[in-house]
Amino acid sequence: MALFQIAEPGESAAPHQHKLAVGIDLGTTNSLVATVKSGVASVLPDALGRPLLPSAVRYRDGESPVVGYDALAGQSSDPSNVIVSVKRFMGRSIDELPYRESMPYRFEAGPGALSLKTVAGVKTPVEVSADILRELRTRAEAALGGELVGAVITVPAYFDDAQRQATKDAARLAGLSVLRLLNEPTAAALAYGLDNAAEGVYAVYDLGGGTFDISILRLSRGVFEVLSTGGDSFLGGDDFDQRIFCWVIEAAKLKPLSGEDARHLLTCAREAKEFLTNHGAAPIVARIGSGELVDLELTTETFTEITRTLVEKTLKPVRRALRDAGLSIADVKGVVMVGGATRMPQVQRAVGEFFEKAPLNNLDPEKVVALGAAIQANLLAGNRASGDDWLLLDVIPLSLGLETMGGLVERIIPRNSTIPVARAQEFTTFRDGQTALALHVVQGERELVGDCRSLGRFELRKIPPMVAGAARIRVSFQVDADGLLSVSARETTSGVESSIAVKPSYGLSDDAIARMLKDSLDHAKDDTARRAVKELQVEAQRLVEAIRSALVADGDLLLPDARERIESGIARLQAAMLGEDRHAIARCIDELETETGAFAALRMDRTIRDAFSGKKIDAIARELASSEKGGET
Amino acid sequence: MVGVVWVGGRMGFERVLMDFNVDHFALFGLPEKFRTDTDLLDKRYREMQVLAHPDRYAGAGDEEKRVSMQWATRVNEAYQTLKNPLRRAAYLMLLAGRKLDVESNTAMPTEFLIEQMEWREAVAEARRAREQTELEQLYHRVKQQMKCRYERLANLLDDEADTALAEDEVLRLMFLDKLVSEIDDALVALEA
What we know:
Helix content of chain A: 25-40%
Distance between the termini of chain A: 23 Å
Structural class of chain A: alpha+beta
Largest interface: A-B, 65 and 52 residues
Number of strands of chain A: 27
Largest sheet of chain B: none
Number of domains of chain B: 2
Radius of gyration of chain A: 26 Å
CATH topology of the domain at 400-506 in chain A: Substrate Binding Domain Of DNAk, Chain A, domain 1
CATH class of the largest domain in chain B: Mainly Alpha
Radius of gyration of chain B: 21 Å
Strand content of chain B: under 5%
Structural class of chain B: mainly alpha
Order of helices and strands of chain B: HHHHHHHH
Oligomer: heterodimer
CATH architecture of the largest domain in chain B: Up-down Bundle
CATH architecture of the domain at 400-506 in chain A: Sandwich
CATH superfamily of the largest domain in chain B: HscB, C-terminal domain
């Protein structure tokens, strides 16, 4: 809420109140939650002091799910109910999953998103991710002693719209308010850059458990500008495990394995990979279900050899990202390594050779993303301290377009455009009397629709019948600061309009989310209702005060009857606040917020325009900076 | 001024949006010239995003978030247009009332078109034969020609105010720009 406080950026409604906000790295293998306390970002550990939460959820019959290490413990005995690496399934259909056969899960195709059958019922990847996020939320709220105002959740830069949307849905389901979806390499650059007062062009090489990202950023006087990004959302540490796993099967001449054996050997493969980080050879010893004993030794040389193509596969997007940024290797001042998988010596070596400089490893590659997210969350929540005058300018990773005649893609917004970004394109009808136009929104770099990601379809109807080519249909794409797309279409001669927030074909419908939310709330306790009333009363009070002061400052922007409507809205809310009827208060707040929405917009517009209108921006920036200092004492 | 048309939620908002239609140069407080102080442009851009970017309004109401997004979008669009010399030139033409007709470029002189075709064939040939050095030489030759043309364009736009000749120059540069990205593609294809 706090509808009006934005008129004075940097000054929070209650300057002395530190708002609880966290950064969450929702990883393929491990997840973390971090926060900023007294100006320092740190990872919040669990009760046993462990910073990582394995991204694993075990579903049980009639009991609540178990998340993290305890879930992993059940992995060999109950593989089909322990879901790991769920991030790889986010926003995906079943046909898009590689190595599906070697996974011990019971997949269900479903109409859009895939889902998994467990003893606790059918679970979508969004629900599984929500269980992980809920665990992190509980951890954070216990550690910080209060409810969170919001979270910044990181996603691979190379995530497409469907995957981003799925991540946001999961957060909603976990009861988290998403302040921003932040690209993982950008988060890392933020943590690294602020820590080292870095200036110049940096590359962030981020090889996680299941995804690979490369981002090229320019750091300049507190502005973190992403110049280009690239990657592969199907490439990560898991693939190295898989290579070892295949090598084991071949070397030990094993017959097709059961789900349990496969899981067991994959675990051995991962342990061997980690062991090789500091050793020249790793033993792989396991007894499988048939009684056979696997007893092998994997040397660094063999490991390097069987994973060479994977390492090379990362360098292709690196080249492209450099080219997209219009830069050469010599322009890159440093390479920040992120993700546990960058610990592998052959990865370090290949990156060092490519960039002709030793990679930077002075931040824990597993924590740096969460720390960056925490720093961003702290700022977005309004806990701005003086000196926090930095800004992130990020890009979209993949081009957005529309299907045109013949299954071709018309590119509307090219990849690596700085967000937020909007573009409009005009189309026309191709048949006489055509009254509807089907729009198919796609994402990707290929020229054929079939090779791109389908994000959604919608139809513009009731176009007045005209001869072919006479209609003027303006299709607008808007990508917001989270990198999420919404599309609207309008026939300009008649004004017929249609719009969608692109709910990807693989996403969840709002109804589905509402149902899941209700299900999870049914378990909640009763006193939350009373607390909700209290919170609403506080919120209402703040809203009234904010509007009153806004009216004093900028009441001149309003027509008399508009002002009257606002005043009577305030009166109604104040009356409702005296009672205990939560719904009545909420309704009055909503009404008042709607009533004042345009006023707020006008005020903000005045603020920005005053700032822009040829006046000395430097002076304004200084003013802002000094008012921040004043606010944060 | 703006408040006069305030008639309710949506309408008020639309009015707000209409008001930011000043041209890109005015937005950044830069003179309407092709020769642009790019350092100053960068600096102004960053200063504006510091004020307008949605990250500054994460705790605000929906309307303000939307206004912030619209402004940040607007600033990004203006910046991208002015930063790229070709887009900047095309934009200046637009401001001067000349809409570039890129589709029907039949008006281009024949010898220029022939030269383009020859160059394109040379690129395709070098790509087939995996002649990296040849591609790099072509790249530098095209870049050199572009540099000369940009200088001429600057004269035409800023000193002589000859938009007709400038338009011709912009169209030629668009060809060359396309050619450069083709050579780029070919070079990347060789690397992989």
